[in-house]
Amino acid sequence: MKTHLITNQQPSSFSEERNDYHTFHVSSTDQVFAAFWQRYPNPYSKHVLTEDIVHREVTPDQKLLSRRLLTKTNRMPRWAERLFPANVAHSVYILEDSIVDPQNQTMTTFTWNINHARLMVVEERCVYCVNSDNSSWTEIRREAWVSSSLFGVSRAVQEFGLARFKSNGTKTMKGFEYILAKLQGEAPSRTLVETAKEAKEKAKEMALAATEKAKDLANKAATKQQQQQQQQQQQQQQQLV
């Protein structure tokens, strides 16, 4: 892997762009960098199936270069499913290059998908650095470019890709904060609240299922009773004859 792979990486032409920012107000760059390598799995990363480090090296100027291969689920919109064969892969393979610069307390990552490129290519660059207002905070700048070569629907594909980037970005930050809380020995309170909410929803589902089961049993019992009554009536009629 060349050292210029990320720093000189440029997004594809004819693409839609989106910028996003996030600040970890209680975490230093060291903590964020450590969480970055430990963030999978977490409760918000169910769409991440696998992760593998395929290359790692330290440069003469003490920068850490890494390349990871990630596999994620890839749910297409219904209108896009009609454009591809039914047996098209439902997983997307993503390459992630990263450079950690401990001297300047920065980390830069660049990710892009290596399959489904005909439908859509999503390229993302993240820069992690010390917040200018507080040196104990870490700031993240996320940029994404979405491009598509599909004739006639490229605009719709780009808009879908940007919307998914926003949705996945929210999950990414929640997962990041969850891991940071664990590393700092804190209870991830928001996750606990959400876990309680999930438990409540599950209890409602179980109660609904129990109600449906009770109705089913009651219907079966009523049907059986009707059958018994009919049999008794038939027996009585036969005796009269």
TrEMBL record:
Bias (Low complexity) ranges: 225-241
Sequence ranges assigned to domain PRELI/MSF1 in this UniProt record: 15-188
Region feature (Disordered): 213-241
Pfam families linked: PRELI
Domain of life the protein comes from: Eukaryota
Entry GO CC: mitochondrial intermembrane space
Protein name: PRELI/MSF1 domain-containing protein
